[in-house]
Amino acid sequence: MLWKAQTMKCVMLLHRDSCGEPGPGEAVVLSELDHSGGGRTKKKRGKPGRLLAPSKKARKQKCPVGVLMGRKASGAVEQNGEGNPVTLFEVVKQGKSAMQSVVDDWIESYKLDRDLALLDLINFFIQCSGCKGAVRIEMFRNMQNAEIIHKMTEEFDEDSGDYPLTISGPVWKKFRYNFCEFIAVLVRQCQYSIIYDEYMMDTVISLLTGLSDSQVRAFRHTSTLAAMKLMTAVVSVALNLSIHQDNAQRQYEVERNKIIGKRANEKLELLLQKRKELQENQDEIENMMNSIFKGIFVHRYRDAIAEIRAICIEEIGVWMKMYSDAFLNDSYLKYVGWTLHDRQGEVRLKCLRALQSLYTNQELFPKLELFTNRFKDRIVSMTLDKEFDVAVEAIRLVTLILHDSKDALSNEDCENVYHLVYSAHRPMAVAAGEFLHSKLFSRHDPQVEEALAKRRGRCSPNGSLIRMLVLFFLESELHEHAAYLVDSLWECSQELLKDWECMTELLLEEPTQGEEILSDRQESALIEVIVCTIRQAAEAHPPVGRGAGKRVLTAKERKTQIDDKNKLTEHFIMALPMLLSKYQAESEKVANLLQIPQFFDLEVYSAGRMEKHLDGLLKQIRFVVEKHTEADVLEACSKTYSILCSEEFTIMNRVGIARSQLIDEMTDRFSHAVEDLLQEGDDADDDDIYNVLSNLKRLTAFHNAHDLTRWDLFRNCYRLLRAGIEQGSMPEQIAVQALQCSHYSILWQLVKITEGSPSKDDLAALRRVIKSFLFVCQQCLSNVNTLVKEQAFMLLCDLLMVYSHQLTAGSREALHPLVFNPDATLQNELLSFVLDHVFIEQDDENQSMEGDEEDEANKIEALHKRRNLLAAFSKLIIYDIVDMPAAADIFKHYMKYCNDYGDIIKETLSKTRQMDKILCAKTLILSLQQLFNELVPEQGPCLDHTSSPVTGIKELARRFALTFGLDQIKTREAVATLHKDGIEFAFKYQNPKGPDYPPLNLAFLEVLCEFSSKLLRQDKKTVHSYLEKFLSEQMAQRREDVWLPLISYRNSLLTGGDDDRLSITSGGSSKTGSLRSKKGRPLVHKKRTEEESVESLWVMRGDQLPLTQLTSTVLPPPQFTSTVLPATKLTSTVLREKPQHALDHVPGHNQHDTQMQMSWLGQHKPEELNRKEHTAVNYMKSRSGAVRHTVRGMMEDDAEPIFEDVMMSSHGQLEDMNEEFEDTIVIDLVCSALVFVNYSAKTLIF
Prior knowledge:
Strand content: under 5%
GO molecular function: chromatin binding
Pfam families: HEAT_SCC3-SA, SCD, STAG
Number of helices: 51
Main location: nucleus
GO cellular component, one term: nucleus
Subunit structure: Part of the cohesin complex which is composed of a heterodimer between a SMC1 protein (SMC1A or SMC1B) and SMC3, which are attached via their hinge domain, and RAD21 which link them at their heads, and one STAG protein.
């Protein structure tokens, strides 16, 4: 090793000196020493304010600095020719050598010359802080500690905020570990002699104390970590000394208690001397610990930097666990208790983990009793911490407290943790499940419970625990998610949750003596728990809503899953028919029980010769189908048949025969019931209606999962629908079920056609069926029953999606005859339905404030249904099935119904912009025009600018403007088109009073002002020129109030042109804006003359270039984007942009400028605008009485974020502080002279 070789060099030099031969380089070293102070000596100091200088002891020979550590006496770093590490910092950073060897080499050098060795150690800490400077020998001897640190601060690299402890990457992560290990090994190797020389430790502690008080974060962070690890190592030494002291004391007592004749006086003197020496060492170690604790920890545990506070708390936890006799008392525990209220989750997390290490040892609990009583409420409240990691550790700590003392937690404390088993965050729920298991479901005396179960005739002793689980589930009134409860307990209570035999016994057998009968609610809850445990065992992954999805199972987990699946299959193959037989009349229980077969290993039926149990299961399912008409029960039966009919299992034929027999019977009954109902007509009684409806519900449920086209259910369903339309007296439920069953039939016919090679006759027949059904659904939109209309609307939207132009994609051109495109009439009817049934007024204010839960649930269900209706229609717009201008009636409701449908409308807007930016912009301006037209009949052409409806339109326009984003190059043509349509609309109708009066729609220009900021500087002038063509000389000179919209709009186009340089970003840099550079002003890539030539070309009226060529010209992007920061901010982060393509096209700029002319300039005269036909004229509706309401106050997406408290629920966080500790409560923030503040630009999205 290099250090070993260098040490051997020093030894050889000493040998040469003893022989009278001068060593090489000796003259150089002596000259360096003489220049730096020569023979002057200083008194040794142990105060923190000054590094200890060399002592007055004479030394025979000093090892040269350059030879010892590869460093010149001046402090500059040298490297050998091979590039090997030659400094202590480099050796520790690379970590190629064992720390023990590194420390041993340093100790050897310390024994040769402790001044130079300590100088190397000092520079090691300086370099570990990221400082480029080095402490020289003359600085070490002549300068105060504060002066040296100030000098190092001046040599610190201020351009970078990174330093070794904060730099990411595996190299620096390893360095941090090596750094901590080096300090620990150093103290361990020096624990028997060097640390007691009153020189090395005093010098290091003095240096670290000074650095820890520095204003430079790197110095403070690195020195605090070093000091805390140094303290940990010293505590270990103190613990060893304490053990040796106890041993020496016992030996001394044993020897002294001997009789005088057998007592060895020399041994007594040696033991007495040893005890005295150990006591002196103990006192010295305690002085070191007090210096570090009071000089560094007490100040840094409340540092402004969270990482520093976390280091302190983590290490004090180590001290208390390692040396509990000295540190596990209220004098030290109070710091951990206070820091439980820290603002940063990282620090709170360290506190909890430190406490966990203490509560894990039950022998330490008596010493923690006072702390537990004082800070228990705070720890329990932290189970609701906003930081999930903190909450999880808090729950685990509460569980440890429960293990140590059953009486430490009150019932209220436990209830605060119980409900967390239903949390969507799985680690938190699992931790709460462990707490719940420890409190309620752990066996106190397993042997006694097993004996009691045998006396009662039970196979398992878990009966009482399962009953308690059911009671807990039922008492959780706010939570009804059994799957979440099972998942929370799965890791700690698998033995209980997989005891399906015991659960089945509780359901099937009569209670024994001493057992209570399960109530109906308890039986339902137990069945639900059984199904959830079966699902968890068979699928081996958390329920929906917990976790990021299915993960790959390990081999052990896969084996466990297979074993569990075989176990549950073998048990429930026999038990399930009995359970269905007992509960076949109860729909809720049957629906849950019928979910069990989907988790079976169906090969067991044939492999285990259990066909008789399969026949029993099919028989019970048939009874259930015949007795029930509830949708969930019938769907469960249908799904069970579908699973049992899987082709890969040999039981398919047996199940298929049973299914066909059942459907034959239901079809026959349905056909006869339909004939009877249609013959009776208006005279049909309730029995006729019930027979049709019950059989139709069963067939519809089965048609959803099974292909029943060979039974031709569509014919009878269509007859029912036609009769209902013609007679107008068809019951609502029959019409809904007939529509749904017909829909399934059409989809199954499409499946059969796509799987084979259909003929033209087959396609023609299916097209006739689809056309007739679409016509029926369209007629049902005008039905008096709301359920029928909603069902017809949803089926229309679904079928138009399925049979749209996308049907022929993927080499399916043969299906083109099945494509249906809705005509204008159907589109208008669908849009009218949405407007009448989705955007309806809410009467929440008129409802009573009693807070009826059932009424609230109905409101939520109704809102969910309306959202589905809107989403179904929006999909037709997104997939270009309905014309995009129809979306104008949707977009205009954004502000009023943002809380209910805002996400759907925004997603629709985003997708339509991706389809066609220009048509989307036309749709946006059309929606604003519709709102404007609704106001004109009430307020006239002179709108009240302060009224709520006008303010609402302007706010909506502002929101629409935000959706165009920051990249004005991409949206240039769309924004220009929007302004064009807005100007034409404003001047479309002249005032009948004469030309001296403003046009009727002139006030719309005030709304259009919201989009002016999205125009490029050149486009603003172009749009202004286009606006001028509509103005006469008299209009341009008018200044009355009625002309204010025109004045405002003109000003928005004429002013702020230079602001574009602050808001435009090019192509790939459009996602984030850049901040102003503090090192220089941005370059200007365009001259003013070139800009004027470009702008002049825009207003030429001779060219008729298509508008689509507008985007072919790339404008020079600016160099920076302005980001407004509050005045209190100190600095800003510099982000540079180098748009290379901004300069590439400058030489040929004039050639491209000729393509930048808009076709709509000069084409339309004001008098021709009245004759212009717009594409979306069919969608303009003048809906009287639909004046916009006041814009609801709501949190906008581009508003400032709300800073919340770190707790979900706070409970007076600082009320438990004692008065004697008030002097250390105040957070001691360091000076902000060298604090670097970074800000990131926040993108405002709509």
